[in-house]
Amino acid sequence: MTWEKIYSLEEIDELVAELKTWGKGFSRWLLQGPMGAGKTTLVHHWIGPQVQSPTFTYINAYGDGLYHIDLYRFREDDYARWDAVYEALETGTLVFVEWAEKLPWPVPYPYVQVWIEILSPTCRHLRAQVITGDYQ
Questions:
Q1: How many CB atoms are located within 10 Å of the residue 104 CB?
Q2: Chain centre distance of CA 88
Q3: Closest CA to 27 of 75, 88, 82
Q4: Spatial separation of the C-alpha atoms in residues 103 and 87, rounded to whole Å
């Protein structure tokens, strides 16, 4: 199951509303894209104004099993941090992981893999795919 859309940054609220409807019921969202693609912006518009980039805190917990994780600065030997990431992935009710390509081990199924591509300074292409563990 895939979904994609080209959108301007002014349309981010509409995009998030559509994505929430499409991905209803999925708790793990793995975000990939270059620096400045809009991963944190997407999460901000999904969760609300309390969202801050977790680049320096690594994991932001917003209560009720809601987590926002940024792996950009994680090192492979940060075992305690990796344990916290995988605990959030296994127990969280809604978990967003930025720089998900850095995850060293498989993620519990199902999850939504999201790729954001920069098309111009104000335009993005987002593609999302549900990964179930079955043959894709």
A1: 11
A2: 13
A3: 88
A4: 13
What class has domain 2-131? alpha beta
Distance CA 31, CA 77 (A): 22
Domain boundaries, the chain: 2-131
Return the structure tokens found at 83.
């344990």
Contact residues for 131 (Cβ-Cβ < 8 A; gap 6+): 107, 109, 110, 111, 112, 113
> Which residue matches tokens 């999302």?
128
What pLDDT was estimated at residue 56? 62
Task: Give the pLDDT confidence of 11-51 residue by residue, as tens digits.
Answer: 999 999 999 999 999 999 999 999 999 999 999 999 988 88
The whole-angstrom separation of Cα 79 and Cα 33 is 24
The pLDDT assigned to 136 comes to 46
Residue 90: count other Cβ atoms within 10 Å of its Cβ: 12
